[in-house]
Amino acid sequence: MPLANALSLLLDFVYPRPCAVCGAGVIERGRHLCWECWRDVGLIEFPFCSWCGDPVAGQVDNHYVCAWCRRRPPSFDRARSAALYDGPVQHCVKAFKYGKRTHLARELGALLSSCARVHYADEIVDAVTYVPLHRRRRRERTFNQAHLLAGFVARDLGVKLTDAGLYRTRHTDTQALLNAKARRRNVEGAFAVKPNGWARGRSLLLIDDIMTTGATVDAVARTLKGAGAHRVWVATVGRGV
Ligand SMILES: [Zn+2]
Ligand SMILES: [Zn+2]
After folding, report:
1. pLDDT value of position 180
2. In terms of CB atoms within 10 Å, which end of the chain has fewer, N or C?
3. Which domains does the chain have, with CATH numbers?
C-alpha cells in the first residue's frame, strides 16, 4: 500500500468524519453517512409502477402501470428512484443542494448508480445526461446538483457524460411548492436542445436528484424525444410522495 494511502487510512481512523445526518463518527473511506443512518434509508423495492417507478401498496405484477401513467403516458421510457425522499436521503439531498455540501454527491451518486445498475442492466445506454438548471439558478447555486450526480453515475457505468445540448429556455419557480397541475404548467416548454442533432438516435439515461410527480423529467424527456432521442430512461436519487 502506498504510504499516502496508509496515512490517509490512519487519519480516517484517528479523526473520523462526522456522519452528514447524525454527526456520529464515520471511519469508512469516502463515506459520509454512518451505518445506522444508512439503515434508515427507505430503499425502493418492488412493487412499483413499471413505467414511472412510483411505489404502490398491495400486490401487482411486473407489468402494472399506475392510473397516473395510464391517464398521461409519460415521454420517458421508464423512471426509477433509489430511495424514498425522506429521512437521511432528504437530509443529504438538502445539505448537498442548498447547503453546498457537494462532497455528498459521492454518497448520493453511489446510491443512484446502484439503482441504475439494477433497473437498466439489460439496456444499452449511449450516454448519461442530466436536467439542466437555468443559468440564473446555476449562478446562484454555483453548481448543478444533477450534473454532479450524473458525472458520478457516468464514471461508475463507464458511459459518456453529456449535456445532450439541453438548456432551459426560461427561469421557472421551484417545483417543490406547487401542486401536480401547476408543476406541469411550470415546466411546459421550459426546455430545449441546441440544434446540433446530438440526441438523434441515442439512448440516454437522464439523471435528476428528486422526482415527485415526474413533471420535470417528463418535460426533459419530451424535449429529447422531440430532438430524435431513441430512448430516455430516468434515474433519480429520491422519490417524493
Ligand atoms: Zn448517522
Ligand atoms: Zn406510473
Report:
1. 87
2. N
3. 46-71 (no CATH), 75-239 (3.40.50.2020)
